[in-house]
């Protein structure tokens, strides 16, 4: 076992991992243990929980109104009336899980005194909440959107939150523009349309209506108007906007933070999470269909993996720039609309996060979870990144309106280390602090400040000099170089997806001025991109580039870069499509082989429950063809047997396979299953050998591999079903 694997294994057994779980235990009720009867919220046993107190005659017939007197019914209804709290103004739809984090070694010690990042003996409990941004709490999971990736570390020195996204840059540079971008992307105020997408006039109006970009590139005077969204728009419209799974996304802190130690040099830092399983996306058509077929697809996928013991893992990496090199780059390293290309600032892998526990109760542990960028621990600090400065104000403020001033006392939010101060009172105060002292200094020396040498938080002593002005620096005013860099770095099919996505979105804008304007802006990024989109949406087709494309690329910007070194099918959902008369031995063998590779298999039959093999033996189908469509699986296998003729006569089964093929899923078949593929499903563009004397095929990315595949060997040799890019 590798050292990392050993470390993670010991982390599972470690006491610190359970520190947060133990802490929350204080507030947990397990209904399967202890007393079992019904009470009011003030603890009185309830004799009847079904009828409101009312006037009736001797026979029990109702002869009068309900009585307001019924304190039991009133309490129940009032509690229900107040069940909802305001949903998050952005990132309303989300899900989360608990786990732990551990660094590999102490290599980050050269930058920071933060023990969570430097002490390999420590296991820090974490809670992570993933979210979409635009839609409301009830919107679907697989919409095109940015995903939130917020991590709360319950460290021994207090809570540290990295409130990040799955995209490394942001739309705007200054917090003062946040209400505008959010209003623009959210449903329009007159009709509350659209839900769960940015495909509407206001969003494209906002990101396109930026007069500066129509001027020559160097803006000679300071500008107050944003024109920044171009880079992030490229990311959201790329495959990143429709992840296959929350477990297959990168995470980014986005903002520039700082690392420091007592009396050491200040370092700027960006945080990155890299998923073990690689970075994968849905196809847009798939995403659209899943929105209807299973709007909870992502949250179920997260819990399914955890329940099956396939715990999602990410590496934590840092990019570090010493303060002395701050101005060496042609972009401003404090500008959140820019990334730090890895060719210029390499990633350093420092630790690993594992999520291994689903929440027990969604509301108290996920809905009430609250993050703050301002939550840092000694050794970690802020930079002058203007977006971060604004965020540091906004999060604390929003938690007060969402959860009340004592939100940090809620079980999921409270630290595992002591909280000792003189802050008191406020709505829903939970803790009872004894004694007469609630101020500092006090005659009892109660809760004295702690010097930095003993762990008190020290703000890095930064020298500041300048004028008070509402302006942005010159480097903040260049907006297209990195949009080009991102576009140039994509594989050809990724570029095509991006063109399709922008074309879809602009087609949903019915204001001509809006879609014409955005096609003009695209021409500042890439001539071909602009031309293709303009042609499909009826925009302004350019005849020459508005700005030359510099042609540079960065390989880590394509998702392909993150494909795991050893291909894996861990946690992939693989359907076995059958009708009565299938070959049971093959199904059992393929199931065993795939399970050995930690893939999840599901039998899909004409009905849920018993289906019968050629020999009349029964097998339980997990779902029927209509119940779970091909979109919900990563690959499909069709065994041999006479069942193939029933499949061939079933329109839904044919659609199942053709749709899987259209979404580039890997399809494997044996014997008569191959005839079904060839003669009934008639996969377009696929040429099967005429004689078909091979008894198995695998169709992957439109390519057929034929041959004999042994069902006795390992899963990967059996059918080359690998994780798709
Ligand atoms: Fe947020 N953001 N944000 N944001 N954000 C919120 O806080 C805000 C930004 C992000 O799972 C709110 O608790 C401002 C960037 C995530 O609970 C609010 C600005 C990034 C979450 C808020 C930004 C994010 C939020 C709404 C511009 C990526 C969900 C509810 C200055 C690095 C956290 C809440 C969760 C949530 C403000 C920009 C990520 C209103 C003012 C950049 C993942 O406080």
TrEMBL record:
GO terms for molecular function: catalase activity; heme binding; metal ion binding. Residues 23-36 have a biased composition (Basic and acidic residues). It catalyses: 2 H2O2 = O2 + 2 H2O. It is an enzyme of class 1 (oxidoreductase). Keywords: Heme, Hydrogen peroxide, Iron, Metal-binding, Oxidoreductase, Peroxidase. Its cofactor is heme. InterPro entries: Catalase, Catalase_AS, Catalase_clade2, Catalase_clade2_helical, Catalase_core, Catalase_haem_BS, Catalase_immune_responsive, Catalase_large_C. Heme binds at residue 395. The active site is at residues 91, 165. GO terms for biological process: hydrogen peroxide catabolic process; response to oxidative stress. It holds the Pfam family Catalase-rel. GO terms for cellular component: cytosol. Residues 17-42 are annotated as: Disordered. Residues 39-448 form the Catalase core domain. Its EC number is 1.11.1.6. Belongs to the catalase family. Catalyzes the degradation of hydrogen peroxide (H(2)O(2)) generated by peroxisomal oxidases to water and oxygen, thereby protecting cells from the toxic effects of hydrogen peroxide. This is Catalase.
């Amino acid at each position: 076992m590798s050292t990392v694997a050993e470390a993670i294994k010991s982390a599972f057994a470690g006491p610190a991992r359970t520190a947060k779980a133990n802490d929350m235990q204080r507030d947990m009720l397990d209904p399967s243990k202890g007393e079992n009867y019904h009470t009011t919220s003030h603890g009185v046993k309830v004799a009847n929980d079904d009828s409101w107190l009312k006037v009736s005659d001797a026979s029990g017939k109702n002869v009068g109104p309900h009585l307001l007197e019924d304190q039991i019914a009133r309490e129940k209804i009032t509690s229900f009336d107040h069940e909802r709290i305001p949903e998050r103004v952005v990132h309303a739809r989300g899900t989360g899980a608990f786990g732990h984090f551990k660094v590999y070694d102490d290599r980050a010690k050269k930058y920071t005194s933060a023990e969570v990042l430097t002490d390999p003996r420590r296991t820090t409990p974490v809670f992570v909440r993933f979210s979409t941004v635009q839609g409301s709490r009830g919107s679907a999971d697989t919409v095109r959107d940015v995903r939130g990736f917020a991590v709360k570390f319950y460290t021994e020195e207090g809570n540290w939150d990295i409130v990040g996204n799955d995209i490394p840059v942001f739309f705007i540079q200054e917090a003062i523009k946040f209400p505008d971008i959010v209003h623009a992307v959210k449903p329009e105020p007159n009709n509350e349309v659209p839900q769960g997408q940015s495909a509407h006039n206001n969003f494209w109006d906002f990101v396109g209506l930026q007069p500066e970009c129509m001027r020559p590139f160097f803006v000679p005077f300071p500008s107050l108007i944003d024109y920044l969204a171009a880079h992030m728009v490229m990311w959201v419209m790329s495959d990143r906007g429709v992840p296959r799974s929350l477990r297959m996304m990168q995470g980014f802190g986005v903002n520039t933070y700082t690392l420091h130690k007592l009396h050491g040099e200040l370092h700027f830092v960006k945080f990155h999470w890299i998923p073990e399983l690689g970075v994968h996306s849905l196809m847009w058509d798939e995403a659209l269909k899943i929105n209807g077929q299973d709007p909870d697809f992502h949250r179920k996928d997260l819990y399914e993996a955890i329940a099956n013991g396939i715990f999602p893992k990410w590496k934590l990496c840092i990019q570090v720039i010493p303060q002395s090199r701050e101005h060496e780059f042609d972009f401003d390293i404090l500008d959140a609309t820019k990334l730090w290309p890895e060719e210029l600032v390499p990633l350093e892998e420092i630790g690993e996060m594992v999520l291994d526990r689903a929440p027990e109760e969604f509301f108290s542990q996920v809905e009430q979870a609250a993050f703050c960028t301002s939550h840092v621990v000694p050794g970690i600090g802020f930079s002058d990144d203007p977006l971060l400065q604004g965020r540091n104000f906004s999060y604390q403020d929003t938690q007060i309106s969402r959860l009340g001033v004592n939100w940090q006392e809620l079980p999921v939010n409270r630290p595992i280390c002591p909280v000792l101060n003189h802050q008191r009172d406020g709505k829903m105060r939970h803790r009872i602090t004894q004694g007469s002292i609630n101020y500092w200094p006090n005659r009892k020396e109660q809760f004295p400040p702690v010097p930095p040498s003993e762990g008190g938080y020290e703000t890095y002593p930064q020298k500041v000099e300048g004028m008070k002005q509402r302006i942005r620096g010159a480097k903040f005013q260049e907006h297209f170089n990195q949009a080009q860099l991102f576009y140039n770095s994509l594989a050809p099919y990724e570029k095509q997806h991006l063109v399709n996505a922008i074309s879809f979105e602009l087609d949903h804008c019915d204001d001509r001025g809006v879609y014409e304007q955005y096609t003009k802006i695209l021409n500042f990024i890439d001539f071909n991109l602009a031309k293709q989109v303009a042609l499909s949406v009826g925009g302004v087709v350019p005849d020459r580039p508005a700005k030359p494309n510099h042609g540079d690329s960065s390989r880590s910007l394509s998702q392909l870069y993150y494909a795991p070194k050893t291909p894996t099918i861990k946690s992939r959902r693989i359907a076995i499509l059958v009708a009565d008369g299938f070959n049971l031995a093959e199904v059992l063998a393929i199931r065993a082989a795939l399970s050995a590779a930690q893939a999840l298999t599901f039998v899909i039959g004409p009905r849920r429950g018993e289906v019968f093999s050629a020999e009349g033996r029964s097998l339980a189908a997990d779902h029927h063809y209509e119940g779970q469509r091909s979109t919900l699986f990563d690959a499909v296998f069709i065994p041999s047997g006479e069942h193939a003729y029933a499949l061939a006569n079933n329109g839904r089964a044919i659609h199942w396979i053709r749709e899987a093929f259209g979404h580039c899923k890997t399809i494997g078949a044996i014997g008569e299953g191959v005839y079904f593929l060839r003669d009934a499903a008639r996969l377009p563009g696929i040429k099967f050998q005429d004689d078909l004397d091979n008894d198995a095929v695998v169709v992957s990315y439109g390519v057929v591999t034929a041959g004999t595949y042994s069902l006795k060997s390992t899963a990967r040799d059996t059918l080359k079903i690998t994780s798709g890019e």
